[in-house]
Amino acid sequence: MQKITTYLWFDNQAEEAAEFYTSLFEDSRILEVRRYGDAGPGPAGTAMMVSFELAGQRFLALNGGPQFTFTEAISLYVDCASQEEVDELWAKLTEGGAESQCGWLKDRWGLSWQIIPTALPELLGNPDPAKAQQVMKAMLGMRKIDINALEEAARL
Fold this sequence. Notes:
Blueprint: E1 6-10, H1 14-24, E2 29-35, E3 47-54, E4 57-63, E5 75-80, H2 83-94, E6 98-99, E7 104-106, E8 112-117, H3 119-124, H4 129-140, H5 147-155
Parallel strand pairs: 1-4, 5-8
Antiparallel strand pairs: 2-3, 3-4, 6-7, 7-8
Helix pairs in contact: 4-5
């Protein structure tokens, strides 16, 4: 078992969210669903806690009620190998959610994600400071990251 596990608080959609998230990434699965009993505080039989893995990383999701909501102060960073992966995840995660800028989005439950191609930090780390700044300028004008546009900016 991993020592530190991300714990996500949902109103009442933890099981639905975990099922959706596990459908997006290889090596992902629901591990366990613990349900409320007659003692509550949720309706008996509904999911209380969902344990799941995304790409081998363990998460816990709680149906804790509406008292707390997600903010951008925490996000899930996804390292994407290709533009195709960026495009696919972006489309699925923004459905019912909202696009932000620089590769950030909120999914339909309000959880923030960073969908970032591996090429972005490499291009931002260009040893030529002028090229790195051109990449930064290009990225700041994007919502979903476009690798070709970043590479073009690095060539200027």
